[in-house]
Amino acid sequence: MIWTRLCITYIVFLSAAGSLSYGLTVLYRKYMRSLHAVTAENPVSILILQKLILILYWIPIPFLRIYFSRIDYYKGRKAYIGGFVCVTTPTMTIFFNTLALVWLAGFLYNITKYIVEFFRLYTIERGNIPVEHPSHIRIFETCQKQFHTKKVTLCQNDLLLSPITAGFIRQRIILPYKNFTETQLYMIYEHEFIHIQNKDIPWRLFGLITSWIHWFNPLIFSQLQEMHCLQEMVCDYTVLSNQRLRKESTSEDISENDLLSCNTYFTPKEYAVFMAELSNNTIFYSGTSAFSENKSQLTRRIEAMANQSKWTKPKKWIIGLGCSCLTALTIIPTTVFAEGTARLQEAWLQAEAVETEAEPQNLSDPTIEEHSYASEDDGVIEIYLGDDNIMEYSSSVNVEGTVDSNTRVVYEYHEMTDDDSISIVVKCTPSDAKYRIGIINKDSGKTDYITGTGLLSHTFIITESGTYSAYVENCSNSTITVDGFANYLN
User: Fold this and answer.
1) 3-class DSSP assignment, residue 19
2) Inter-CA distances, 289 with 2, 128, 303, Å
3) Which end of the chain offers a freer environment for a tag, N or C, measured as fewer CB atoms within 10 Å?
4) Vertex 16, ends 14 and 20: CA angle to 5°?
5) Max Cα distance, the chain (Å)
6) pLDDT tens-digit profile of 443-483?
7) d(CA 393, CA 384)
8) Using an 8 Å Cβ cutoff, are 20 and 53 in contact?
């Protein structure tokens, strides 16, 4: 089926774009590290690029470029140029149907795995109860005012060992049953409210859905792990930056909402030690954020906090320039790759040229019918007229107009069954120009045709049910004018 091949090709193009953009960012960071540039590890700017990479996994520019470049208006009628858009062969159909089944199996497996994980978290959250401790509520409400987030609830759960934030629409911070100090509570609340403010959970869910589609690409999982770690590093960066600003502020500069935080000041070392304590007990759930997700991230986060004083906030125009360069360096090569892939598929269509002839071709006798699975001439340009709709009843199509040299014009497709027939009568000018009239099976690519000059007339009997179309092919090196009709007889 053509749509199966196009869908698989579409996904491959998207995956190539995302992989290339991720590879470019990795190479850039390695290059900057070799120059000992600390700013290359600034998580704020890198996280923006990581989000752009996720978006590039969805932008279909390369596919649309090659798709619409093969749609034109030939002699005033909508036409498809080449076979990439609307033709297939039996071997190609089997190959891409197999790929589609493998992709679908992986897609359903990943969704099923997420559903199981979702219900596991749902079962745990059924034990959520509202927090009643006065100091917990007081600090939580202070942070709510500070971050202007009203639609967040606070609860506790005895099945959790580490604080998490969950929920896409109704977001909630869930605490384990532990005796946290006020300083530790402020660390937790500010960290999790920054996650909510930065919309990290929606981005994680977006990345999760992207990984379902591109599950066959191992780079998408590396990229998601990188993005999760950067999100945590940005939260650490923001929490410690806020603490440093509060420490340097005078009493007149401190707002009412910051009074509590000034009384619960903590150092980066205390913050890192608290992260290490929680990392031993954290269980990660998709679509959530935890204060300290795992030990593998912990070392990198602590190293980042040690270099935080060397970071500079990236300017907006620099970020915009970086995003524009990354997009261009991704889209242009991917479009070239897409064009090459499309031409490779069209060459595949023409490669299945297993021709059989009932007897040697006799151009003086236009009743000799020939059969093939592709154009005999690799240089023939195929133009498919019509909008790919299938006519279900008997009808007649006018075969008229000019046909450029070495060009095949394929008309509207019709559904045909065994013993149906297609009668084609065409007169060509100039009368000595060599041309063909024939029919083509949309699903198999098989063609039946006669070749001659002047007036050609032939009735093609359908021996295999399928979708067929009449066509005229100019075999000469000059433009010809044809006038006639094709009758689809059911």
Assistant:
1) helix
2) 42, 17, 21
3) N
4) 120
5) 104
6) 777 888 888 889 998 989 888 888 888 889 888 889 999 99
7) 20
8) no
